[in-house]
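[Discussion] Sanity-checking designs against the backbone

I'm trying to build intuition for which residues belong where. Below is a structure token string of 241 positions. I'd appreciate it if someone posts a full sequence so I can compare it with mine line by line.
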């Protein structure tokens, strides 16, 4: 693969063009970042593990009627995807209070929310990926009202499906981030990835607040055993399919 084929490089993936202008190749990296890339490092094997987990979860969601950009996985750390124009939004779904929700509201860590909370964040590192109200989002013309409704409905449906699946893995889905894109045919597709990089996942067999963490919080908070946690998620995902 030549350097000239590189289309874009982000924190976790590199996108390459292919012979088909409507298909891209996503290469998953071992690089790890946190706090808007203020903290950087590497997690050995992360690219292959996240690519495998995301591929399996995309296939699961496709089978349940969720349209995604996923095509196939031609190599352990590579995914072929449909080319989309990514919406500049992060759609976050929260089931349990953690992370910034606790920091910004004072809710205690681990409080189960009465209903899933769907939030929208601006994808802009320079601005710190700020939380947006619906009116601000519309003011910035980041999505149409119809798209916002569709994004919310899709996020809640995906949440239902993933909660049930991770329950079979003896994992609690605390919260997660989704990204969506618009295809050349103007179809809204789930894009990016779903993995321990983008989800908070707690081991149901553990009650210790640190030991139960199976996601990138292990890297953010210097909890150690990051690679083992990611590998365990992959093994449980594969066993539950």
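Best answer:
Here's mine. Compare freely.
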């Amino acid at each position: 693969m030549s350097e000239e084929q590189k289309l874009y490089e982000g924190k976790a993936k590199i996108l390459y063009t292919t012979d088909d202008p409507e298909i891209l190749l996503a290469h998953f990296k071992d690089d790890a970042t946190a706090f808007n890339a203020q903290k950087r490092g590497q997690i050995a094997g992360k690219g292959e593990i996240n690519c495998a987990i995301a591929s399996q979860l995309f296939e699961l969601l496709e089978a349940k009627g969720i349209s995604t950009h996923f095509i196939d996985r031609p190599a352990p750390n590579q995914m072929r995807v449909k080319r989309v124009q990514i919406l500049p939004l992060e759609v976050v779904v929260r089931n349990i209070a953690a992370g910034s929700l606790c920091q910004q509201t004072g809710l205690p860590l681990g409080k189960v929310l009465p209903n899933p909370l769907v939030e929208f964040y601006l994808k802009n590192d320079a601005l710190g990926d700020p939380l947006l109200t619906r009116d601000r989002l519309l003011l910035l013309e980041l999505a149409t009202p119809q798209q916002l409704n569709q994004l919310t409905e899709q996020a809640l449906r995906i949440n239902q499906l993933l909660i049930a699946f991770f329950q079979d893995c003896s994992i609690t889905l605390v919260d997660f981030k989704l990204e969506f894109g618009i295809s050349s045919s103007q179809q809204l597709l789930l894009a990016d990835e779903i993995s321990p990089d983008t989800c908070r996942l707690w081991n149901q067999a553990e009650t210790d607040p640190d030991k139960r963490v199976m996601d990138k919080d292990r890297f953010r908070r210097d909890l150690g055993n990051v690679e083992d946690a990611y590998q365990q998620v992959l093994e449980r995902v594969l066993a539950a399919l």
